[in-house]
Amino acid sequence: MAVYTDINEGDLKAFLTQYDAGELLSYKGIAEGVENSNFLLHTSKFPLILTLYEKRVEKNDLPFFLGLMHHLADRGLSCPLPLPRKDGALLGELSGRPAALISFLEGMWLRKPEVKHCREVGRALAAMHVAGEGFALKRPNALALEGWKGLWAKSKDRADEVETGLEEEIGNELAFLAAHWPKDLPQGVIHADLFPDNVFFLDDELSGLIDFYFACNDFLVYDLSICLNAWCFEKDGAYNITKGMAMIEGYQSVRPLSEAEITALPTLCRGSALRFFLTRLYDWLMTPAGALVVKKDPLEYLKKLRFHRQVATSAEYGLIR
């Protein structure tokens, strides 16, 4: 359940008077998402998403996230838009939390993505990277190499509770990535969390991207590595090279990769697999029983990491020169 902070109808109606959003007709919590509390509102004017930003999201980062959505939409990318208050601000407060109203995006996320969907995601990711050019605000990636080291320091003493030998294996992996992480690749704004539940489709047509609350500045091709991990592995843990080929082709149809990016892709895939393994491991070990945070199995990404460790070139992901 993604509602960590509840709201009452009276407070919500008072909150809505700060916006040109019409009168409240109904609202309900949305049982998806991990970081924030989300509600679907129906008003006399239009449906809206209400997001209450929980403690895991830094309030100082919110101008970056909300401003980025406007920047991308102004350049033709389909994504939700923050609704300004009557005083022009994009951010308000409700139930003691920073809060924003976001436009409702039609569509559903796919439980079983197919090859054609992976191609569309590749195109959309590249389009987002192009549209992000010129965005004035900057946000460093807090979950890059130094962030991984910090997460690991908090988890390593208990890692072998999850699987014997993990402490040594992940320590060695971090050392490898610290020594081999690429430099001087093309950078820009990345989504950093473009999993299937953050991409909406209508009748097999991609209708938009959502949830920009991990967006930051980093290597553009690192974002592609995250998507290969999130979209191109099957339930049994096998990498689907046909899906990978389609995703990479879709991406390159909009933004061709440089030779340096192609060479770096296997290392970046190892890094993005480790990133999601470490955040899942930390939550798995540190979240108390009965807490509202949804815990995801870290071993899923450990298997992916081990696959990437055996990859020699980007051709094994389906990249055709």
UniProtKB/TrEMBL annotation:
<comment type="pathway">
    <text>Amino-acid biosynthesis; L-threonine biosynthesis; L-threonine from L-aspartate: step 4/5.</text>
</comment>
<keyword id="KW-0067">ATP-binding</keyword>
<dbReference type="Pfam" id="PF01636">
    <property type="entry name" value="APH"/>
</dbReference>
<keyword id="KW-0547">Nucleotide-binding</keyword>
<dbReference type="GO" id="GO:0004413">
    <property type="term" value="F:homoserine kinase activity"/>
</dbReference>
<dbReference type="InterPro" id="IPR005280">
    <property type="entry name" value="Homoserine_kinase_II"/>
</dbReference>
<feature type="domain" description="Aminoglycoside phosphotransferase">
    <location>
        <begin position="27"/>
        <end position="257"/>
    </location>
</feature>
<dbReference type="GO" id="GO:0005524">
    <property type="term" value="F:ATP binding"/>
</dbReference>
<dbReference type="InterPro" id="IPR002575">
    <property type="entry name" value="Aminoglycoside_PTrfase"/>
</dbReference>
<keyword id="KW-0418">Kinase</keyword>
<protein>
    <recommendedName>
        <fullName>Homoserine kinase</fullName>
        <ecNumber>2.7.1.39</ecNumber>
    </recommendedName>
</protein>
<keyword id="KW-0808">Transferase</keyword>
<keyword id="KW-0028">Amino-acid biosynthesis</keyword>
<comment type="similarity">
    <text>Belongs to the pseudomonas-type ThrB family.</text>
</comment>
<dbReference type="InterPro" id="IPR011009">
    <property type="entry name" value="Kinase-like_dom_sf"/>
</dbReference>
<dbReference type="GO" id="GO:0009088">
    <property type="term" value="P:threonine biosynthetic process"/>
</dbReference>
<keyword id="KW-0791">Threonine biosynthesis</keyword>
<dbReference type="InterPro" id="IPR050249">
    <property type="entry name" value="Pseudomonas-type_ThrB"/>
</dbReference>
